[in-house]
Structures are given as structure tokens and as C-alpha cells.
Design a protein that fits this description.
heterodimer, A: about 575 residues, eight-stranded mixed β-sheet, 22 strands, B: about 350 residues, eleven-stranded mixed β-sheet, 3 helices
């Protein structure tokens, strides 16, 4: 696959591809679910052969992720007749294939305790900003940040370092070839604190600052005796940000720390070639690959229980932001600290729900993160919260995109939704509506669901055999809700026609401003869509391919405006929901 | 898949082991097979309270490399506030310039003309979270205590560990909470109500100085007020306005007046165990300790806690496990089990998603 090789070569990460042939097993260990998928060659091409899903067992009373992994693998073994685990509890790896085991294995994880880190840098808006964005690529809890504007005394900073029990210290700061003295003085605090710690208590330091200081820091690391990793400077010049080097090292540290603090990860890591990778890294790679394959911008949102990951392949660049305190399960109680309950309530059609009820709901979701909404009111609150979490996460992620975070969302040809909440809705229409309400895309956007929750694992598996990934995607790894046409502004009424390319009957349509409407087109069927409307400034023709909802015309405008008054708002929300179908997904 | 996502204990008698992780530098204070009470010290760790850097060279007006012969206190030596750390005689021995210690502690290192001081060491005590027998002591990492008793895993709690007499204030679970029932008997007790916690009731508990509070439920809007409470607070059902499960209420009522442990653990996003109530039953026969990691598929006859409205927090018994997913009132399709729930008419089962069940030990 030349294209994919080019992607790997061009990618800002140094991924080694290694042409595994034969069955490939990929596992993702989430906070709530553990999923596994088996890819194998069927009739000359790679296909999804089987998948398994089991409740994750990272937490009490099990406290061992292996239990959930064994269960997911046993489902695949039962469905395929292929033994995967030997009598010692290890994965059977048979590089040349065969009736038992697999030729390749990858694992991603987001479950378990986040990495506890301290960030050291110089300027808040320069190196510290880049350091924070690099740290955003893994599931990390930032305990403290030390910059030049820190008003604490040296003693206070040393005491923080000594008492923090951090897993990692990320050091950034200085441009390559720039002044070193300020950084040197700043780092003295760190070195004094390290000298005071017992040797085994010194967390690893990842240095991704001024390259001119790297050798000096290596010497200090040897002298004081602490583990050091050096990555390329995240801010080689004032106007350049380069995160991939630091992100790659962070992923490696993540695997190492996970193996130490999450029972079962060490065993699974031994089955892999490159360790257990952060789920978000695999997800970001999948989004970037989709962007390259489809030759347009792709946005990915993985709404998890403990964290939300936003990945973008934008104008050929790959971006990844992980929001560790923003999730719909374990972290749901943190949502209220960042998003006012009133923002969530505006999406509800049920009456009598107060801010206090929203808070209770979020706290209960946090205490029982695996639960699913059973009553209609709960379903509304779940998806109202999901809309706001996704909206907030993408808005925050945009600060790291070169396009900035003001104005409408940049045009994305594809949006990939992952995470059980987004993909396991009662209706396809609800999945689509949540995505549109939260993201407000403009132009023509295909919305894909990741129904098996395996985009991260597949992204991680891509280097094993890029062809396997491409063939699996072609065979329908994702569920296409269909293209959505949205126009910005207020004058958004659209009319036009949809002419199926198989010679079927042409339908004409009119969608009034403020409405959303699906046009019938069979899944996978191509059609010519002709559009006219004030905002378009003339007639437009384009070829579309039908998804689960056919083709959707979203004439609600950008931003979406609610009518005044609660009753009118509720009526409008219900109309949108009904337009996309309240029926049950078949 | 018939595995549920969560398991909990609501049991009149069980034996289990509790791991107490030790901070680095701990010294154990117990031996294997020793009997301990809840809150007994298991290990003691000492850590420095603070560090100070004193710039000796600057204070004495000398170059850093000239500091060494002027030192009065050297690395490793103990110091008190006001002790002279270094001094420099003035002209003809007059007007001695001195640098005094700002803290009690000891000298750690002198480098580049600066002296690093370590403050007094603070003791951290690792207390037993349950009464029982110490079955293993690993000074580097952990001490394990085994105990037998009734146990109730709570939905949520905060405030740490408390040990006291159980006082059940209600005669039945309910939704109305009457404040103003406190008397001197409740001082130092772990108080239970079968109804939601209210602000008025919480204020009463703070005023009478209870040692712990267990309620059925808690509106999340009350959480900031819990910071005023110097005792742990736990809820059995969850957040909002819910009555206590009859099964839990009866179990706690049965042990009214006994010594209990309310352990809500650390207030942390990462929990390796649930907040819990332990009622030690020393006189009962010791039961064999079950492997808590054992994972049993859900089957008819098993007890479960329901986490699905409108039965959230109720205890029930699985009557069947349908092979196919069913549609919940919300429209979500999910695999699940039919459960007969306490307080409901026998024979009337409710379909509950596996995701909304806790398997009970």
C-alpha cells in the first residue's frame, strides 16, 4: 500500500511498519468496556472475522485488566474455533499463522489511573502551552505547572515536587539555540528536589526543551541518578510547534507507567511488539489515515467514560487532544465544573428538570459509570450532556489547530464518532443529531460511527499490516450515517433534487430555514444532488453516497438558534428529533 | 455475555482481606497474626515538613567557594531555630557576621555557597481500616488485615475512616427526613437514616458531633456543605432523593448499637475499592476468604443491586436471563436479566440491563 507507507513516512511519528501476514488481534482496554477484534484473510482480503466485548476489570473488586481481556478473547475463540490463549495464560503468537493463535497483536488502553505529571517550562503562552498540548496526547493528570511567572518561593516549589508523588516530570522551554541561562536556573529547583528524593522515588524526566541543554541535562541525570528521556524540542522556534517527538516518548512512558500501576498491563505488554499504546494515539492514527485515504479533512471524537479524545487530520496535519477530566462516566461529575448545567438543560424536551437534577444525574453517572439510560428523561440528560461535552472538547481542541478556535468549524469531509454513548443510541437519527448539534459542521460531511469501538485498536494495528487496515475499512468497519449538507448563516432554506445513479426516480425537495430533513437514498447507493438556496449563491451539483439516513439536509443555520420561550424551544427540538426518525435502529 | 460490570457486597457475614498500602519509608508497628482494632496504627512513616535554602555566601558577603571554612553546621547536623549556621569574623575579630537557622530540622547539603535545610519530620500513621488479624506484613509496600463481619458497599462516600457505635434513627426507609431528633446519645455515634440527607439534618449532625453519617441518598447540590463536616458521610443508593433499600436498612437495623467501621477511603477519582460499612462479628465462626477476583456469570437465583430508575439502589433476585437483548423504556436495546425487586409484588419481574446491575456477594 504505497499511500499508507507514504503516510507513515510523512507522519510526524516514526512508525515502523512490519508486514505481518496472517490473523491480527487487536485489543482496546477502556474504562468501562474491553474490546477485541480479530482480522484475518477471507477470500483474498482482510475482513473483520470476529469481535468480543466484556466489562473492563481494571477497578475493584477485580483490579486486573487481564480478566476482562481473557473474557473478550474467549468470545472470539468460541466464535471462530481458534485457540488464542495457551495453558500458561499467554497469548499464542504464531508468526506464520496456523490453526491456533495469531500472527500479530496490538493493544491500546485508556483504563486505569491517569499518569500524574508535573510540567516545567518558561513562558505560559509559549513553551508551557506547547508542553500542555503535548501532554494532552495521553491520559494524564497535570498536578502542577512551574513557569517563569510562578510566584512561589524556591522552597515552596521544592516542597511541591517532593510531596507530589508524580509519575513524570515534563520539561519544556527555550527555543533551539536560544538563551540557556534562564532555563538552567529554573531547572536547579528540579535538580535540588531530585537530589532530596530517595533514588527509587525519582520520577522520570522527559526533556523536550532547548536542544542545546540536552547534554547538560543528561550529565545531571547521571550525576543525580534519575531516569531521563530526551525528545525534540516542542518549541524549536517561537513560531514553530513540534509535538510529535514528545508525544511519542509520552506514549512510551505511558506504557511503562501503566505496566507498573495497572495490574495486567505488564502481561499484555509482553504479548505486543511495541507495548500497550494509549487508546487516543491509536484513534488519532486512524483519523489521520482516514484523512489520507479520503483525501479530505477528518475530525474524530471519542467520547469515553473517563476522558474525551479529539483527533483531527486537518490540511495534512495530525492533531490530538485528550481531555482527561471530561467524560460521560467516571469523569461525569467533573463536567459540571466546566460546563454550566443550564447549557445541558437547553437540549432537554422533558419538563421540570432543574440544574440540581442535572447535577444528580452527572454524579450518579460518575458513581456508576457503566450504567445506561433506562428512562426517557435519563436518555435526554445523557445526550444533552454528551452534546455539551463534545462541543466543549472540540472548542478547546481548536486552540491547538492552526486554524484557531473562532468562527465556524473548518470544513471536515468526514466526522468519526467513537465511544459507546455516541454509537449505541436507540436510533441512528439521535447519533447524527447529537454530532450535528455539538459540532455544527458546514459543507458536506459524512458522519461515521465506530460501532465496535475498535478504531483505536485498528489504528494501532495499522503498522503491522497497512493493507489489512485498508481492506477492513473497505469491508465496512465503520457505519456510515450518510452525508449531511449544512450551510452557514441565516438564509439557509434549500431546494433541489436527488437523482439516484442507478436510474431510480428523481425526487425534488424543499427544506425551510430552521429545519433538518433526511432524503431517502439506499445505503451505499450513489446519487446526484442538486442544491439551490440563498446561502449557496447559485445552483450546486455534487455526487453523494447514501448512508443509514440517506442524505441529510441541515438547514437550521450556523449557529443553531432556538426560538424564545421554553415551550417553543422544546417543540423545535422535538421536531428535529422526529425529522431524523424516532424509530428504533434495526 | 452475561457478566455484569460491577460487584458489591451487601452481606450479613463474610470474611475478607483488606490491603493497607504503605507510604515510602514506613516502619511497621504490627506483627503477623497480631489482632488489631479499627484505627490501630499499623505503620508509621516520617517525612520532612518543609525545605529551606539559605544563601550563606550572599548573607556573609563572600564568594561561594569561600563558604566552606565559615560553616558552623555541616550536612547531617541537627539544627534549631536561631542556631548559627555559618559565621565570618569582622575586622580584627570584631563585628562577627552570622547566619541563623530559620527552622528546626537538619542540614542536608551545602553547594554553591547555599545551604539546604530540611524541616522537622512529620509522622504519618497508617491506621487499620478494619478490625481483625494481621496476615502479612511487607514493610516495603503493604500490610494485610483479615476480618469477618457484615459488610455493605456504599454507592458513594467521602471524609475518610470512622469507627463508632451504630445508631439507626428511623424505623423504616422513607423519603421524608426529620431533623431535630438528635440527642446526646448520637454524639460520637455513626448515625443512619433511611431517607435522603438534607441540609438541616446535616447541620444537626455537625452540631451534635456525630462520628459518621449514613443516609439513603444525597442531593449533589449539598456536596459543598459536606466540607463543614469533620466526619465521613456515605450514601447507600446514590445522588438525588431516594429511600434506602429495605434489605440494607434491615441489615443495619439488626446491628443497631454495635461498633461499626464507616470507611469512605480517600477522596479520589481513582478508587481501587468502594466506600463501605463493616460490622465486625468477632464471635462468629471464621469463614473461608473468597477470591474477590472470581468472576461469575449472572444466573437465576443470584442477588443483585438494581441501578436503573425507578428502582435505583433496590436489591433483587435474578429470576431469568433472557438470551436476547430487550428494549428499555428509553428505547435503548440491551442484554439483561429479569429481576424480582424487594418491596414489589412477588412474581412481577422487571427487565434490567446488565449494565444497570451490580452482582452481590
Amino acid at each position: 500500500m504505497t499511500l499508507l507507507r507514504e503516510i507513515f513516512d510523512e507522519a510526524q511519528e516514526q512508525v515502523r511498519t512490519s508486514e505481518v501476514s496472517g490473523p491480527i488481534l487487536a485489543v482496546d482496554i477502556g474504562s468501562v468496556n474491553t474490546r477485541a477484534v480479530l482480522l484475518d484473510v477471507v477470500e483474498g482480503g482482510y475482513r473483520f472475522v470476529s469481535h468480543g466485548v466484556s466489562p473492563s476489570t481494571a477497578r475493584a473488586p477485580w483490579n486486573d485488566v487481564l480478566i476482562g481481556v481473557y473474557d473478550a478473547l474467549s468470545q472470539i475463540a468460541a466464535a471462530t474455533g481458534r485457540d488464542l490463549i495457551d495453558e500458561n495464560g499467554d497469548l499464542i503468537l504464531s508468526p506464520r499463522g496456523g490453526p491456533a493463535g495469531v500472527a500479530g497483536f496490538v493493544a491500546t488502553a485508556s483504563a486505569g489511573q491517569p499518569i500524574r505529571a508535573i510540567l516545567f517550562g518558561l513562558m505560559p503562552d509559549v513553551s508551557l502551552g506547547s508542553g500542555r498540548r503535548a501532554a494532552d496526547s495521553i491520559y494524564l493528570s497535570l498536578l502542577d505547572t512551574f513557569g517563569l511567572d510562578d510566584r512561589r518561593t524556591t522552597e515552596e516549589r521544592i516542597n511541591v515536587l517532593l510531596n507530589a508523588q508524580a509519575d513524570l516530570v515534563l520539561v519544556v522551554g527555550g527555543t533551539d539555540g536560544g538563551a540557556t541561562e534562564v532555563m538552567r536556573e529554573h531547572l536547579d529547583t528540579l535538580f535540588v528536589a531530585y537530589a532530596l528524593m530517595k533514588r527509587h522515588a525519582r520520577p522520570p524526566v522527559l526533556f523536550a526543551g532547548n536542544a542545546a541543554l540536552a547534554d547538560e541535562i543528561r550529565e545531571r541525570a547521571e550525576e543525580i541518578d534519575f531516569p531521563l528521556l530526551v525528545a525534540d524540542n516542542v518549541r524549536p522556534s517561537l513560531g514553530t510547534e513540534y509535538l510529535a517527538g514528545a508525544q511519542e516518548q509520552l506514549a512510551s512512558l505511558y506504557n511503562e507507567k501503566k505496566a507498573q500501576n495497572t495490574p495486567g498491563i505488564a502481561e499484555i505488554s509482553r504479548w505486543t511488539k511495541d507495548g500497550v499504546q494509549p487508546t487516543a494515539h491509536g484513534f488519532a492514527r486512524m483519523v489521520h489515515l482516514l484523512g489520507a485515504l479520503r483525501k479530505h479533512n477528518v475530525l474524530g471524537v471519542d467520547l469515553g467514560s473517563m476522558a474525551t479524545a479529539v483527533a483531527a487530520s486537518l490540511d495534512g496535519r495530525s492533531y490530538l487532544n485528550v481531555f482527561g477530566q471530561l467524560g460521560i462516566g467516571h469523569a461525569a461529575h467533573q463536567v459540571a465544573r466546566q460546563i454550566p448545567p443550564a447549557y445541558i438543560r437547553r437540549w432537554l424536551t422533558v419538563e421540570g428538570v432543574e440544574d440540581a437534577d442535572v447535577l444528580d444525574y452527572l454524579w450518579n453517572r460518575s458513581v456508576f459509570p457503566h450504567t445506561i439510560p433506562a428512562q426517557p428523561a435519563e436518555l435526554e440528560m445523557e445526550y444533552a450532556a454528551a452534546r455539551e461535552i463534545v462541543r466543549y472538547a472540540v472548542h478547546s481542541a481548536r486552540t491547538s489547530w492552526q486554524t484557531g478556535n473562532t468562527g465556524p468549524l473548518p470544513p471536515f469531509g468526514t466526522i468519526l464518532l467513537s465511544g459507546t454513548t455516541l454509537t449505541h443510541t436507540p436510533t441512528d437519527g439521535l447519533s447524527l443529531l447529537v454530532a450535528l448539534d455539538a459540532l455544527l459542521p458546514v459543507g458536506v460531511t459524512n458522519v461515521l460511527l465506530d460501532p465496535y469501538g475498535l478504531s483505536a485498536a485498528l489504528g494501532a494495528a495499522a503498522p503491522l499490516n497497512p493493507q489489512a487496515l485498508v481492506q477492513s475499512l473497505a469491508a465496512g468497519a465503520f457505519y456510515d450515517l450518510g452525508p449531511v449538507v449544512s450551510v452557514p448563516g441565516r438564509d439557509t432554506a434549500l431546494r433541489g433534487s436527488l437523482k439516484p445513479k442507478d436510474g431510480g426516480k428523481t425526487m425534488t425537495f424543499k427544506v425551510a430555514a430552521g429545519e433538518i430533513r433526511p432524503l431517502p437514498l439506499a445505503y451505499g447507493q450513489k446519487a446526484e444532488l442538486t442544491l439551490e438556496g440563498g446561502a449557496l449563491g447559485g445552483r450546486r451539483k455534487l455526487t453523494v453516497t447514501g448512508g443509514a439516513l440517506g442524505v441529510v439536509i441541515d438547514a437550521r443555520g450556523r449557529p443553531v438558534r432556538f426560538p424564545r420561550g421554553d415551550d417553543a424551544r422544546r417543540k423545535r427540538l422535538l421536531a428535529w428529533r422526529q425529522a431524523l426518525g424516532e424509530g428504533v435502529r434495526s | 455475555m452475561t457478566h455484569v460490570y460491577a460487584r458489591a457486597r451487601i452481606t450479613p457475614s463474610t470474611s475478607f482481606r483488606r490491603v493497607h498500602w504503605l507510604p515510602r519509608g514506613s516502619t511497621p508497628r504490627v506483627l503477623e497474626n497480631q489482632i488489631v482494632k479499627a484505627a490501630d496504627p499499623l505503620a508509621i512513616a516520617e517525612v520532612a515538613s518543609e525545605h529551606r535554602i539559605v544563601d550563606i555566601a550572599a548573607a556573609l558577603g563572600v564568594a561561594p567557594e569561600q563558604v566552606e571554612p565559615l560553616l558552623v553546621k555541616r550536612p547531617g547536623e541537627r539544627i534549631m531555630v536561631g542556631d548559627v549556621l555559618a559565621q565570618k569574623p569582622g575586622f580584627l575579630g570584631f563585628r562577627m557576621r552570622q547566619v541563623e537557622s530559620p527552622i528546626d530540622g537538619r542540614v542536608i547539603v551545602v553547594e554553591d555557597g547555599k545551604m539546604l535545610l530540611e524541616g522537622k519530620r512529620i509522622r504519618t500513621v497508617v491506621e487499620a481500616t478494619v478490625p481483625g488479624r494481621v496476615i502479612s506484613v511487607d514493610p516495603e509496600s503493604r500490610i494485610v488485615v483479615e476480618t469477618t463481619g457484615a459488610a455493605v458497599d456504599l454507592a458513594w462516600g467521602q471524609g475518610g475512616l470512622s469507627w463508632g457505635t451504630l445508631k439507626v434513627m428511623d424505623s423504616a426507609p422513607g423519603l421524608e427526613t426529620e431533623a431535630g431528633r438528635f440527642n446526646i446519645d448520637h454524639r460520637g455515634a455513626i448515625v443512619v437514616i433511611g431517607s435522603p440527607l438534607t441540609e438541616e439534618f446535616l447541620r444537626g449532625a455537625i452540631e451534635i458531633r456525630v462520628k459518621g453519617l449514613i443516609a439513603a441518598s444525597l442531593p449533589a447540590s449539598l456536596l459543598p456543605l459536606l466540607n463543614d463536616a469533620e466526619f465521613p458521610v456515605g450514601v447507600t443508593q446514590g445522588f438525588g432523593r431516594m429511600a434506602m433499600s429495605r434489605t440494607i436498612f434491615d441489615l443495619l437495623s439488626q446491628h443497631n448499637g454495635r461498633e461499626v467501621v464507616l470507611d469512605t477511603g480517600e477522596s479520589s477519582d481513582w478508587r481501587d475499592r468502594r466506600p463501605e460499612i463493616i460490622i465486625p462479628l468477632a464471635s462468629q465462626r471464621r469463614e473461608s476468604v473468597r477470591d474477590v477476583r472470581e468472576r461469575r456469570p449472572l444466573a437465576a437465583g443470584q442477588r443483585v443491586r438494581v441501578l436503573q430508575a425507578p428502582h435505583t439502589g433496590k436489591i433483587g433476585t435474578v429470576t431469568s436471563v433472557p438470551p436476547e437483548p430487550r428494549r428499555l423504556p428509553s428505547g435503548v436495546w440491551a442484554p439483561g436479566a429479569v429481576v424480582e425487586i424487594e418491596d414489589m409484588e412477588p412474581g412481577k419481574g422487571v427487565f434490567v440491563a446488565f449494565a444497570n446491575l451490580e452482582q452481590l456477594d
